[in-house]
Predict the 3D structure of the following.
Amino acid sequence: MDEPFGALDAQTRLTVQSEFLELWYETHKTVIFVTHDLEEAVLLADRVVVMTARPGRIKSDTIVDLARPRVIDELRFDPVFRETEHRIWEELRGEIV
């Protein structure tokens, strides 16, 4: 999925993200999700792969250690969520041009 929620307004995005998590939890299908939204990546993923700027190569591969099922409204305040997001942001910072 390439930026599937990018065009949604904030409220609709939260609803669709929650529905996506429920659907994933029921089916356990593998999904590769491309996003530029770091918070969204950490909220939804089990693993976040950061790519370098051109040429695109894997810079880091982070396991997201948050329990499932996930409740998006509560996760934003979870210390593990914040620490994971911060760690990945530090990886991304060097790629911003």
Remarks:
- Helices lie at 10-27, 38-44, 72-75, 79-93.
- Residues 10-93 form one domain.
- Strands lie at 47-51, 58-63.
- The CA atoms of residues 4 and 35 lie 8 Å apart.
